[in-house]
Amino acid sequence: MTGIAPKTKVIRDGKWDEQGAAILVPDDVISVKLGDIIPADARLLEADPLKIDQLNI
User: Fold this and answer.
1) What Å distances lie between residue 14 and 1, 8, 26, 31, 36, CA to CA?
2) Fewest CB atoms within 10 Å of the CB: 6, 7, 30, 34?
3) Range scoring the smallest mean pLDDT among 1-5, 20-24, 38-42, 52-56
4) Residue 34, number of CB atoms within 10 A of its CB
5) Measured between alpha carbons, how far is 57 from 42 in angstroms, rounded to an integer?
6) pLDDT band of 11, cuts 50, 70, 90
7) For residue 17, what are the β-bridge partners?
8) d(CA 47, CA 57)
9) What radius of gyration, in Å, describes the C-alpha atoms of the chain?
10) What is the rounded distance in angstroms from the CA atom of residue 30 to the CA atom of residue 39?
11) How far apart are alpha carbons 4 and 42 in whole angstroms?
């Protein structure tokens, strides 16, 4: 999985947990911070402010 973040913060059992990005499933809620690689196709729920570098897309 070249180019995919190896770990991401995801809500599991009602709390934030760090998991391997490979186990993400549809409707998971993830958290990303400055400098993170977004590990999957995602829908943005909240941002303050937001800037995306699409260089690797």
Assistant:
1) 28, 16, 16, 14, 22
2) 34
3) 1-5
4) 5
5) 14
6) very high
7) 10
8) 20
9) 11
10) 9
11) 13
pTM over 0.90: no
Concatenating the DSSP letter of every residue in 16-40 gives EEEEEGGG--TT--EE--TTPPP-S
pLDDT tens digit sequence for 12-49: 999 999 999 889 999 899 998 888 888 888 888 888 88
In angstroms, how far is CA 13 from the centroid of its own chain? 17
In sequence order, which residues have a C-beta less than 8 Å from that of residue 16 and are 6 or more positions away?
A: 9, 10, 31
